[in-house]
Amino acid sequence: MKFPKSSCMKIVQEISDIIGERVNMMDHEGMIIASTDPARIGTFHAGAKRVVEERLESLTIHGDEEYIGAKPGLNLPIAFQDDIIGVIGVTGPEKKVGKYGQIIKKMTEILLLDISMRKELDVEQRIRARFLNDWIHGLPQEINRQMVENGRQLGIDITTPRRILLMSIIPREGAATVALQRSIDAAEGSVRKILSALTEAVVFKSGSALVCCVTQTDDDRMVAIARTVKTRIEANAALTMCIGIDDAVESFVYINTAYQHAQKALRTCLRSPSKDIRLYDSINMEIFSGEIPDMIKLEYVRRIFRNCSLEEIAGWIPLLDTYYGVEGSLAKAAQALYIHRNTLQYRLRMLHEKTGYDPRSLRFSSLYYNAIHFYHDLGGNMILKGDAEAQQEM
């Protein structure tokens, strides 16, 4: 059994801090792999080699010349899974270090066991995460008997009818920092803890989003679950939570369909100024927008915002997004945009004059609604690769 050198260094340092003596750890070949004396790391310790080969219970070295590469001190075998995997040594006079013998040995073995268990747990978690991602991305014909059995071995019954909440925790504003990322990581841990209380809930990471598969229930219950989580996370003023909810599918083999629907609902939530919870059944344009080529979306946006520069379009989009997000209420939109109501009216009239389409008219609002969603699909990039190449050639 091999352990990371960083873990071995941590062990010798912890033991040294407790007993106040220099500590070394040697592998089964007698090489010093960790030591509180950096100069000794990577050197051969003949005394340790003898402890392993002869399976000695301990070896006390009295002089510098007694064993190659060894100094006076106590050396004890490290047992792991009924095998001697190395030696732990304490440098110092026999009377001084002898009293630490069995304490050092047991401490080392306990620490190594803890490291081993953590490694096994990490491997199990990776296997579980890989299985769950294969499951939600699997086509109906791939959700077969073997996958069902693999799931059961991991303690997951994928035949249970389920619905999906897809969640993304994002900063409200400001550049990403280490502290902010730690807050997001902690928030994801809180989400897992909250949802683990639900019967047979399965929570895992897929890409940048958290996936929560809960047993089949109605929309009201799904929204209630989402609202509980969102409220808890947004208690941190620096974070906001976007959640997309699927619609019920007819069989567990269509879990990928449910996942794709939750993705579309989540994307809609992420685009929305309010970042409110979205059900797949409540979205419209987003259902098929993913099937439309980017070049067509780009052409459509440019056509609707005719006579507008790219910079102007980038300014009109959030204004219209907010305006339509409050159902065309001038008062609410002006408040959300931190401008006077008359200023908003003036800007909407100006857009009408530029494009020929009145954003306040029910007749033309759908044109702008589509353009907003296409713009967001393009990530605000109004110059695609083909355009950029064409501009460079001009």
Q: Can you give a write-up of this model?
A:
The structure is a single chain. Residues 385-394 have low confidence and may be disordered. It is elongated and about 95 Å long. The longest helix has 36 residues, at 101-136. With 394 residues, it is an alpha+beta fold. It has helices spanning 5-19, 46-54, 94-97, 101-136, 145-153, 178-195, 219-233, 255-271, 286-289, 294-304, 310-325, 330-337, 341-355, 362-377, 385-393; strands at 23-27, 32-35, 59-61, 73-80, 83-91, 162-171, 202-206, 209-215, 239-245, 278-279. The chain starts with a helix and ends with a helix. It has three domains: 5-117, Beta-Lactamase (2-Layer Sandwich), CATH 3.30.450.40; 161-283, 2-Layer Sandwich (Alpha-Beta Plaits), CATH 3.30.70; 289-393, Orthogonal Bundle (Arc Repressor Mutant, subunit A), CATH 1.10.10.2840. It contains 15 helices and ten strands. The relative contact order is 0.06.
What's the SSE blueprint?
Blueprint: H1 5-19, E1 23-27, E2 32-35, H2 46-54, E3 59-61, E4 73-80, E5 83-91, H3 94-97, H4 101-136, H5 145-153, E6 162-171, H6 178-195, E7 202-206, E8 209-215, H7 219-233, E9 239-245, H8 255-271, E10 278-279, H9 286-289, H10 294-304, H11 310-325, H12 330-337, H13 341-355, H14 362-377, H15 385-393
Parallel strand pairs: 9-10
Antiparallel strand pairs: 1-2, 1-5, 3-4, 4-5, 6-8, 6-9, 7-8
Helix pairs in contact: 1-4, 6-7, 10-14, 11-12, 11-14, 12-13
